[in-house]
Design a protein that fits this description.
Layout lengths: L2 E3 L2 H13 L4 E6 L5 H13 L2 E6 L9 H6 L4 H10 L4 E3 L3 H4 L13 H4 L1 H5 L3 H16 L3 E5 L3 H13 L5 E5 L19 H19 L6 H11 L5 E9 L17 E8 L2 E8 L1
Parallel strand pairs: 1-4, 2-3, 2-5, 3-4, 5-6
Antiparallel strand pairs: 7-8, 8-9
Helix pairs in contact: 8-9, 10-11
The structure holds adenosine monophosphate.
Adenosine monophosphate binds next to α2 and β5.
Length: 280
């Protein structure tokens, strides 16, 4: 039976009891409007822990665009049902005041290059907000393992850097991207796509898959041009496509400069911003 907590105090009591019984805790933070991508993290966590705790909180400090925050889908009843069916033990669903008492936000992190490129460049302040909420949640849940999707590749790098920088006692586990049957990476934002935008959005993952197939044959510049061309039309508008070193997130110009570079893309489908990536 899934337990639902809305306060840090009640969740902490539950966690204390779990720890007193020597239970290993796995944590899956989310912003809700859950889909199979989120549930895959729950399933991974279930395999590796005794207790799985999820959180559902649309974190205002990571939204640089107010209308994106307002339009972000919120489906708490369905989320509870999916978590229950997915075998999650507890979910933390705090109100904003619980995570930001008196609205205070005073932490300012410096992740260097990791936050100045791609998502960090186009969404100023985004990763500072992510770091603030992830640290606050980890401090309450105190999990042994925390699970994050590779769908948000740069976010995963930031979370790993945060944990190292703050010396937090948790293992961060990256999990594979879950896709719709046609290849579109699952995302809570996909529900905001019109039928035509949804149809066109498949071109994003198709362009990445083609780039991977042709990686050995083309230069970095040719691959970039191809991906940008394939994801540009009257419904789709790419914001960036970068091929980066997975450790530093620096763009590479030479294919041999690092093993397994990653191609990261952000595309506007109408007024919905979608991201995806592929490892070469
Ligand atoms: P979000 O609710 O979008 O903040 O995502 C919560 C967690 O689920 C993050 O660690 C995401 O990377 C992960 N996630 C979201 N979509 C997917 C997906 N399609 N496949 C795997 N993980 C995902």
């Amino acid at each position: 039976m899934l337990q639902v907590f809305t306060t840090k105090a009640a969740l902490s009591d539950y966690i204390c009891n779990c720890k007193a019984e020597n239970k290993k805790i796995g944590f899956v933070p989310t912003m809700g409007a859950l889909h199979q991508g989120h549930i895959s993290l729950i399933e991974q966590a279930k395999k590796e822990n005794d207790i799985v705790i999820a959180s559902v909180f649309v974190n205002p400090t990571q939204f640089n665009d107010k209308s994106d925050l307002e339009k972000y889908p919120r489906t708490p009843e369905e989320d509870i049902k999916m978590l229950e069916e997915g075998g999650c033990n507890a979910v933390f669903m705090p109100l904003q005041e619980e995570m930001y008492p008196a609205g205070e936000v005073n932490e300012s992190y410096n992740f260097g290059n990791l936050e100045s490129v791609m998502e960090g460049k186009f969404r100023p302040g985004h990763f500072n907000g992510v770091a603030i909420i992830v640290k606050r949640l980890l401090n309450v849940v105190k999990p042994h393992n925390a699970y994050f999707g590779q769908k948000d590749f740069q976010q995963l790098a930031i979370v790993r850097a945060l944990v190292k920088m703050e010396n937090l006692p948790v293992n961060i586990i990256g999990c594979p991207i879950i896709r719709e049957i046609d290849g579109l990476a699952m995302s809570s934002r996909n529900r905001r796509l019109s039928a035509k935008e949804r149809e066109e959005s498949v071109k994003i993952s198709k362009a990445l898959a083609k780039a991977k197939n042709e990686f050995a044959l083309k230069t970095i510049d040719e691959i970039r041009q191809d991906v940008l061309a394939l994801t540009t039309n009257s419904f789709l508008k790419p914001e960036y496509f970068e091929i980066v070193n997975p450790n530093t997130l620096e763009s590479i110009t030479d294919k041999n400069s690092c093993p397994h570079p990653v191609g990261c893309i952000a595309v506007w489908a109408g007024n919905v911003r979608l991201i995806d990536n592929i490892q070469f």
